[in-house]
Write a structure and sequence with these properties.
The protein is mainly beta and 1877 residues long. The chain is built from 16 helices and 137 strands. The strands form 39 sheets. Strands 24, 29, 30, 31, 32, 33, 34 and 35 form an 8-stranded antiparallel sheet that branches. The longest helix is centred in the N-terminal third of the chain and has 20 residues, at 452-471.
Length: 1877
């Protein structure tokens, strides 16, 4: 399990290695010469990237640095070093190289981990999650990645496939694998020894510092920056100061703990805690890198990254010096001896972003082109947001109960967020040649294409869309938009109304003249309604804007057109007002305004404008109604028309229609509603109904007309498949104010039962809240506490209600129980159940204000468990509580409620969610019901459905309007909600698919207004709906609704496949294959597995069709494509795309039309010759003939263009190609420099409507002749030092415009070169001279070799002495030291004495003398050395290194020298302590006295030594034993210990023996084992000294333990069980045992172990031995059954009574006391046996008695009467029939069996004859009054005790057989007569 560490951490001193200055954008030194070849190993250190690390604490230094100019990233540069300033803490940090440790090397990739904790971050900002979804992953791969590395470094970082393993302890899923650039290590990584870590785990329970768990790699340093950041964090854990994250969610590594120093300990931590981050990544070893050369020239050219133009005057800073680039952008820097691969090269220029490289990234043998990004490049150019601060636009208002509400309102404004447009560079080879930069505007972040051609095609489409919307066909523009919309980024914005904004545009820049200028650009802003907007759009609105502006400044927009993308003409923006704020007042349902508006708001937008009032106007044309309602009893209604009311900018007066019942006053108020205006609900619709009846024939009782309009229906699904409906309904037998009655009906076997009241109390019922479990239903509702008077006002009602509770047990409803009495009005109540425990919550207002506008509101709850209600618990109290719900999360009760943040319940979307008194969310929760379903809570927040499971808050992403229900059938989850359209609304449903929901689809098609509803999801996927549906009047001048119907539907799945967004590809020409694509949507409620797409011509003929086999879920959309080859005869026409699916219920949305066959005139290609002749090909790629075609020739000059000529082409037929030419005047062909081109534009136009206009222009450039290659007059030169030479470069072609060349040397310490090719030699060696062209950077090279002659040689030694086999190295010094050839030859004059190798190493062979000579290869110079070889002693050994002697004893030692033939083998002997031992000259040692001495032998030659340790000891004198006497029980063991004296004795070996091994044995180590009772002597003997010691051992037969026969037993109540216990060993003398029960009230045990069970429960029986008090235990579990409901059990006799007839289960009557036991029985009637079993074994048995049922068939009837008659008349006796039958015969429980009992049974048989006994009991209870009377005829609840006296026998004589037969026949006759009657 994870360990959450709570330890105080001590501070550490962080040592930061500062290597060199580096910018925040990155440094690198990760590839050296050896490493580039793959020389890395685990544990190596590298430096790569840079990050703020070291804090500058010196105030003076900090002041000097901050005097410099900082950039927009708060970075200062001072003396070549960069610093980061953190504003919020006023701290300055040096940006240092990041140190990394290599964890693994694989092929050309290394895995590295930061050595330091670099920053502090939470694992995830909100809630538990896995790595794939963590905010830390996002931070690392965005902010950290972009901040720590340069662009070149980023190229070296590989994408890594990260395997996210499961939790190492719990096994919880670690989430999906990810693909990351930057990540953090996993638990598996930091415990992998192959990566340099120690394996885990620290387990030393007795800790000390020496044994502390340490891992040097798992521990790390914390940078100053990280340490300071931690102290600044608000969400820090005080125990987390020295932790850093692992990738496994919630795991971290402890750097150290100040108390116990657990270095590298792996712990657990809250994922939202702010703790350390050690980044990790994988680097590519194949990334470009070069060997760094000292004293070398490096050529650099600095160019603009977009235009390629040279950046003249750019600064190149290197090793403290700054070089300026020349006019061609070129410069040369020179390395020195101290230059390293990490040396930084920083390139900067005004107007450009500074770039930093490392020296290893530069090539010394070619031109290094550095691309600088302009700070005003097209990507960074800003499009300013179009933003006009708007106003809140309100509709007319209504005043109710002192509060004023608008009928609707919305936030108006202009917000087009252009600054956030995503730009994509369209870079192609052609663009570079034509010096054009093109950009796409508006694509989403996931936009990606594989090829330049695909990106260019997209650019053409964006440009086409703009051109088409600007002046082309509206239908054609829609086609273009549908093609692009999937690529576009969604933004929230507003065009007067809030809406979803998309952008589609393009920018085109030209840099032909060397300067970047904006040539063309445009953007279209489209607006569509999002589900969350409160004003749905009636189409796709758009506005087009021309983009202009200077390149160095911000771009600007000017509006060119606007309209609606649809098949119709361009329209003003039109929306439908949706009721939001005005729809509810204060407390939902309790006091509310229901508002309906049917019409539209028309708005006009004109931008740019200086204010919103000048940019937007809006008018309302609509019919409106208002209904005010309070407490489910009081209401009133109003309605009117608004003909054309100006809403904005000036709220205008208007003339109401004659039918309108109210007018707008000068403040815009429609009507003022006071409490006195609210009257009792008119019940005239129900005057003819006295009780619940159906207007529909048959038993479809729940479809009814003219019902109570506020039925608040509830549907409940039971486990047995039944469905119960509960709802409020009028009971016409009561007065108006008391009429509302809570009814229920059960759906079973495809029909609803007759509705019945839940409880016919005569009081008014109000809405019910229910929950269910199994076949039980739990309900809570509000009802009147008394019968109310129709004259009551609202204030009379609020203190006369109570909250009641009832249960449905599967058959009947229990009597309601009051859980809150009258006095305070109960609101916001709900109910939940878990495992039989029920919880009910409600709210009350301190002032009894049902609107909650005054006083405080308190939330309460109660629980019901084991039949008893708890006391009231107060959850919270305050102002603004708006809704609440109760539920269970696990076993814990959760109260979720919303609190209005400002306390004003009339404002919307400003509530906060609280959980048990703690705030969970901020104030953005919508007004709406909080609900609970299957362990989760739901509510609407930001128009989306949220769910909360007690730990995790999750946004489902499902857009919801209002009044939702969460449905589930155990397999599928669905959500229903209402969608409003004017006065109508319909139900929609969304199904859960994985972790998301499908798009909502229509569920109902009533075409009316659903007031209140409930729904359930059936097991077959259908949805059952019960709703109050208001009928429409159809009168526009009256209140829109008439009566209300109750509608019950089971809505099975339907299919509804629709098509939209159909487009056709642009390659529309005769004979071409075009592609139609579009979107199909399943708007039905069941999946569609396949469908077909048909393409039809204008005459509805099928051109082609395509079957598609793909499942589309409800609400899901998918795309399709269909290819079709256009025939030769095809002409421009409207083509339809039609979809068809089997069972499609709606054909109205199956087709969409698109026009195909426009003309498409284009410039296919164009070129310009050197003489200025432009040749162009014009082609018509379309279907229609292009008319009046002309070509304009323009010359482009910056942002402007000049018309040179216009040429009329005339008519171009479809597919026709025409070639045109034009000669450009010579004045426009002049070239200024090699970087500029002259650009000409061809623009073709036609009078015909075109498919595409983006291909109507074509640019050609007239460019200078470029360099193609270069050569040198020689490729090699050999020179002596001091010589000079010149290289001559030839540039090709000879007429190239720029033939400039410059030269560089890669070894300036060998040869230098100037730009004219003049070479000067300065040192010995080889230099590569490279010639580089200014144009094209072509190179040619020459290798220059410079040499120096040898002038002499000498040796470092002239005379040496050396031992045989030893070596000495001689060194030859060449003069001069810089000579080119320093090789020498070594020789020995006598190799038998000494040899010499090629490196001058001399080795002695034998004694003697010889001469060693060195001779130079260059010049033959010689030098010599005399060598004397000797044979000396090299070491010495002694024959013994350790000896032991008794006093006066001797030992001869021998010495040996090496080599054996050494010149002087003599040695000297010596003792360091002569009193202990002496040694002679020959090595004879003599022992003197006990002690230790060291004998040393030393060689005379070399004084080498060897030693021998001499120990002089004593004989053994005695033995001492640890025990001299032992008493042991048989079978046990003991150990004796012997101490030998004296301690200095030599031979301490002890032998052990037992004198009687049959009693006890002993082994060689003194271990004694007792065998049997008796006595023996154990003797210890030591041979040295011949001494002994003894111990007397006595063995006894004592007890050693006790064993129980059973460890666990189950027995029934009132039964017995014998337990047995055995004392061990069997030979024990005392085997007496005592017995005890820990809980004798459960079971007792006697002195012999006989257990007697008393009551259900568990006790422990203990057996204790008298000898030794050893104990054994047995768990005794007493089990049985308990009676519940009406059942009763006589435990003395085992008789069960109180059951109902016709039972097949005891589930609701008998409970087993232990869940491991179960009941077994075959039938349930009198004398049936019920067995209590466990694991198949019978524990107890019980007998059933059903009064009246004497024959045991489960019924009591006339058949039983015969047997009872026999008993009554003495024909049968109690002994004959048995006790159970005898009890059952006493039907009236008067203690005797007589004719009265017989008569009861005859009456029962009569009732039962009218009952269909084949029907289920539940159905009989609901449908048969005879069955209910039958059940109540004989009381089954009477308990019959076993001690009742036996009935006395009748005094009369037993009747004869004849008399008995006659009486029996008479009873049958009476039965038949009663049946006839």
């Amino acid at each position: 399990m994870k360990k959450i560490m709570k330890r105080a951490f001590a501070a550490v001193i962080v040592a930061v290695m500062v290597l060199c200055a580096a910018p925040l954008s990155g440094i690198a030194d990760f590839i050296t010469t050896a490493q580039a070849a793959g020389g890395y190993k685990v544990g190596d250190t590298i430096y790569f990237g840079s990050y703020p690390q070291h804090e500058i604490t010196s105030m003076a230094q900090k002041a000097r640095i901050m005097e410099q100019q900082k950039n927009n990233k708060n970075i200062y540069e001072y003396k070549g070093i960069q610093y980061y300033y953190k504003n919020d803490s006023n701290k300055l940090y040096r940006i240092d190289p990041i140190e990394w440790k290599v964890l693994s090397v694989e092929d050309d990739e290394i895995y590295v981990l930061a050595y330091d904790v670099l920053d502090i971050q939470p694992y995830n900002e909100s809630g538990n999650t896995v790595w794939a979804n963590s905010s830390l992953r996002t931070w690392l791969n965005s902010y950290f990645y972009s901040s720590a590395f340069s662009d070149l470094e980023k190229k070296k970082i590989n994408w890594s496939k990260i395997q996210n393993g499961d939790d190492p302890y719990t096994g919880e899923d670690g989430g999906i694998d990810t693909k990351d650039k930057i990540f953090i290590p996993s638990y598996a990584d930091v415990t992998d020894p192959n990566m340099g870590f120690t394996s885990y785990y620290y387990e030393n329970s007795s800790w000390n510092e020496d044994s502390a768990y340490k891992d040097g790699l798992r521990t790390c340093r914390f940078s100053n920056y990280a340490t300071n950041i931690f102290s600044e964090k608000k969400n820090k854990d005080i125990y987390a100061e020295r932790l850093y994250w692992l990738r496994n969610s919630g795991y971290c590594v402890m750097d150290f703990d100040g108390n116990r120093f657990y270095y590298g300990y792996i712990s657990g931590c809250n994922v939202q805690s702010d703790i350390g981050v050690r980044p990790a990544m994988k680097l590519d070893l194949n990334s470009s890198s070069y060997k760094v050369k000292s004293n070398s020239n490096y050529s650099i050219k600095v160019v603009d990254d977009t235009t390629g133009q040279p950046v003249s005057g750019a600064s190149i800073s290197f090793e403290g010096e700054t070089i300026k680039a020349d006019s061609s952008g070129s410069a040369s820097l020179r390395t020195s001896d101290s230059s390293s691969s990490t040396s930084a090269v920083r390139i900067s220029a005004k107007g450009y972003a500074t770039q930093t490289l490392r020296l290893y990234e530069l090539n010394p043998y070619s031109m290094n082109t550095i691309n600088l990004s302009s700070e005003s490049n097209p990507v960074s150019m800003a499009l300013a947001d179009l933003y006009l601060n708007g106003d809140e636009i309100k509709g007319p208002t209504v005043s109710i109960l002192g509060k004023t509400f608008p009928l609707f309102k919305f936030s108006g404004g202009i917000n087009i967020p252009l600054s956030d447009i995503v730009k994509v560079n369209v870079s192609t080879e052609n663009d570079t040649r034509n010096k054009t930069a093109k950009y796409i505007l508006g694509v989403n972040s996931s936009y990606s294409v594989d090829t330049d051609s695909a990106r260019s095609e997209d650019y053409q489409n964006f440009k086409d869309f703009y051109k088409s919307a600007l002046g082309g066909s509206n239908q054609n523009a829609l086609n273009k938009y549908n093609k692009l919309r999937r690529l576009l980024k969604d933004e929230d914005g507003s065009l007067g109304f809030s809406c979803g904004i998309k952008f589609a545009g393009y920018l085109e820049f030209s840099y032909a003249t060397g300067n970047m200028v904006l040539k063309d650009g445009g953007i279209i802003v489209t607006a569509e309604a999002a589900v969350s907007t409160d004003v749905p759009f009636a189409g796709i609105c758009y506005a087009t804007f021309k983009i202009g502006g200077e390149f160095s400044g911000d771009l600007n927009l000017s509006q060119t057109s606007s309209g609606l993308l649809s098949a119709s003409t361009k329209l003003s923006i039109s929306v439908k007002p949706t009721i939001g704020v005005g729809a509810k007042l204060l407390m939902k349902d309790l006091a509310s305004i229901e508002v309906g508006i049917d019409g539209k708001i028309t708005g006009a937008v004109k931008i740019p404008a200086d204010s919103f009032r000048n940019a937007f106007s809006a008018y309302l044309s609509a019919q409106c109604y208002i209904k005010a309602k309070a407490l489910f009893l009081f209401e009133n209604k109003w309605s009117t028309n608004f003909p054309n009311l100006e809403l904005y900018p000036n709220f205008g007066q208007f003339q109401t229609s004659s039918a309108g019942s109210f007018e707008i006053d000068e403040n815009g108020n429609v009507v003022t509603i006071n409490e006195s205006d609210l009257k009792l609900i008119d019940r005239s619709y129900n005057d003819n109904k006295q009780f619940h009846t159906s207007s529909v024939t048959g038993n479809d009782y729940l479809n009814d007309t003219s019902v109570y309009p506020y039925g608040y229906p509830e549907l409940v699904q039971l486990d047995d498949g039944r469905v119960m409906a509960l709802y409020l309904y009028d009971d016409g037998t009561k007065s108006d104010i008391n009429r509302t009655t809570l009814y229920y009906s059960i759906y079973n076997n495809n029909q609803w039962s007759v509705p019945l009241p839940v409880n016919n109390s005569g009081l008014a019922d109000f809405p019910v809240k229910v929950c269910s479990s199994g076949n039980k239903i739990y309900a809570v509702w509000q009802r009147a506490a008394e019968v109310m008077q129709d004259s009551y006002e609202i204030e009379d009602v609020v203190d006369k209600t109570e909250l009641v509770y009832a249960e449905f047990n599967g058959t009947t409803w229990s009597k309601p129980v009051t859980i809150d009495t009258a006095g305070k009005y109960q609101m916001l109540y709900s109910i939940a159940e878990k495992d039989g425990k029920v919880a009910v919550e409600w709210s009350e207002n301190s002032e009894n204000n049902y609107t909650l506008e005054s006083g405080t509101t308190t939330v309460y709850y109660k629980t019901l468990a084991d039949g008893a209600w708890s006391d009231v618990t107060t959850v919270d109290s305050g102002k603004g509580i708006a809704d609440a719900s109760i539920g269970f999360v696990g076993d814990e009760i959760k109260m979720i409620y919303s609190v209005d943040a400002d306390g004003d319940l009339t404002t919307a979307n400003d509530s906060e969610i609280y959980v048990n008194g703690t705030k969970l969310t901020s104030n953005e929760v919508d007004e709406g019901e909080i609900s609970y379903q299957n362990g989760k809570f739901y509510w609407i927040q930001g128009a989306e459905l949220f769910e909360y499971d007690g730990g995790t808050l999750n946004n489902t992403g499902l857009k919801i309007e209002n009044d939702y229900r969460v449905l589930t059938n155990g397999k599928t989850t669905a959500v229903t909600s209402l969608v409003t359209d004017g006065f109508k609304n319909e139900l929609v449903v969304a199904f859960k698919n994985g972790n998301t929901y499908t798009k909502p689809v229509a569920l109902t098609e009533y075409g009316k207004h659903i007031g209140y509803y409930d729904a359930i999801l059936n097991s077959n996927g259908s949805v059952s709906v019960l709703a109050d549906v208001d009928n429409l009047s159809g009168n526009k001048d009256a209140y829109p609704y008439t009566t209300t119907d109750m509608v019950c539907d089971i809505i099975s799945g339907k299919k509804d496949l629709g098509i939209e967004n159909v487009t056709v590809s642009d390659n529309v020409s005769v004979g071409s294959t075009v592609t139609f694509d579009g979107t199909v949507t399943n708007s039905g409620t069941t999946p569609i597995d396949s469908y077909s797409v048909f393409i039809k011509d204008s005459k509805n003929n099928v051109l082609t069709e395509k079957p598609v086999y793909d499942t589309i879920l409800p609400g899901e959309s998918k795309t399709f494509t269909v290819d079709y080859t256009l025939p030769e005869s095809f002409t421009k026409q409207d083509v339809s795309a039609v979809v068809s699916a089997d069972g499609d219920a709606n054909a109205s949305n199956n087709s969409q039309t698109i026009t195909v066959g426009y003309t498409d005139i284009a410039v296919a290609e164009a070129s310009i010759a050197r003489d200025g002749t432009i040749t162009a090909t014009i082609v018509n790629n379309g279907i229609e003939t292009a008319k009046n075609v002309s070509v304009k020739y323009n010359v482009i000059d910056g942002a402007s263009k000049t018309l040179l000529s216009t040429f009329s082409v005339g008519t171009v037929a479809a597919g026709e190609i025409k070639t045109v030419t034009y000669s450009v005047p010579a004045a426009y062909l002049k070239i200024e420099n090699s970087y500029c081109v002259n650009k000409f534009e061809l623009d073709v136009t036609t009078d015909s409507e075109e498919l595409s206009v983006a291909n109507n222009t074509y640019d050609v450039v007239y460019a200078p002749i470029a360099v193609e290659s270069i050569s040198l007059n020689t490729s090699t030169l050999s020179l002596e030092n001091g010589q000079t030479a010149q290289l001559v470069a030839t540039v090709y072609p000879s007429n190239a415009f720029n033939k400039g060349v410059h030269f560089v040397s890669d070894s300036t310490d060998v040869a230098t070169v100037d730009d004219n090719g003049n070479i000067i030699t300065v040192g010995n060696g080889t230099a590569i001279i490279t010639a580089i062209t200014d144009d094209g950077d072509y190179i040619a090279q020459c290798q220059v070799t410079v040499s120096v002659k040898v002038k002499g040689v000498d040796l470092d030694q002239k005379d040496i002495t050396i031992n045989v086999d030893n070596t000495i190295a001689l060194k030859a010094n060449i003069n001069p030291d810089v000579a080119s050839d320093k090789t020498v030859e070594w020789t020995s004059s006598d190799t038998s004495v000494a040899t010499v190798d090629k490196d001058g190493v001399v080795r002695g062979v034998k004694t003697g003398n010889t001469t060693i000579t060195a001779k130079t290869n260059d010049g033959g110079f010689e030098a010599s050395c005399t060598v004397n070889v000797i044979n000396a002693v090299k070491g010495i050994t002694v024959s013994d290194t350790r000896i032991a002697l008794y006093p006066n004893k001797t030992k001869q030692l021998k010495a040996s020298v090496t080599p054996a033939d050494a010149d002087n083998p003599n040695v000297v002997w010596e003792s360091n302590d002569d009193e202990v031992a002496t040694v002679s000259e020959t090595g004879l040692v003599t022992a003197k006295m006990p002690g230790t001495a060291t004998i040393t032998v030393k060689s005379v030659d070399g004084e080498y030594t060897a030693t021998c340790t001499v120990t002089v000891g004593k004989h053994v004198s005695s033995i001492v034993l640890s025990d001299t006497e032992l008493t042991m029980p048989a079978g046990t063991s003991e150990t004796l210990y012997a101490t030998v004296m004296p301690l200095a004795a030599f031979n301490k070996t002890v032998t052990w023996v037992s004198t009687n091994p049959k009693v006890a044995t002993v082994d060689g180590n003194g271990n004694v084992k007792a065998i049997k009772a008796g006595t023996t002597t154990v003797i210890a003997y030591c041979e040295d000294g011949d001494v002994t010691a003894s111990c007397i051992v006595t063995v006894t037969n004592s007890a050693t333990g006790i064993e129980m026969s059973e460890s666990e037993v189950y027995i029934a109540r009132n039964s017995q069980k014998q337990l047995n216990a055995t004392v061990k060993p069997d030979t024990a003398e005392n085997k007496n045992i005592t017995w005890e029960s820990k809980y004798p009230e459960i079971a007792t045990v006697d002195s012999n172990g006989l257990v007697t069970a008393k009551m259900a429960g568990t006790t422990i029986v203990v057996a204790t031995s008298a000898d030794g008090e050893f104990k054994a235990y047995c768990s005794v579990k007493v089990v049985g059954v308990d009676a519940v409901s009406t059942a009763s059990i006589d435990y003395a006799t085992g008789i069960i009574t109180g059951l109902s007839s016709n039972l097949n289960s005891l589930d609701n009557y008998i409970e087993v006391t232990d869940e491991s036991c179960e009941l077994k029985y075959d039938k349930l009637g009198t004398d049936s046996i019920v067995y209590l079993t466990r694991n198949g074994k019978v524990i107890d048995a019980y007998t059933v008695v059903l009064f009246g049922d004497v024959n045991g068939d489960g019924w009591y009837d006339g058949q039983d009467a015969i047997t009872v008659s026999c008993l009554a008349n003495g024909m049968l006796t109690r002994e004959q029939v048995g006790e159970a039958v005898w009890m059952a015969a006493d039907c009236n429980h008067d203690g005797k069996i007589d004719q009265a009992d017989v008569d009861l049974l005859n009456q029962a048989g009569l009732l039962l004859s009218s009952v269909d006994q084949t029907k289920p009991t539940e159905e009989l209870l609901e449908t048969s009054s005879e069955y209910n009377e039958y059940l109540n005829l004989i009381d089954q609840s009477v308990e019959v005790k076993s001690d009742e006296p036996e009935q006395e026998s009748p005094e009369t004589q037993k009747p004869s057989l004849l008399e008995f037969l006659l009486m029996t026949i008479w009873n049958y006759i009476k039965l038949i007569l009663s049946l006839i009657k």
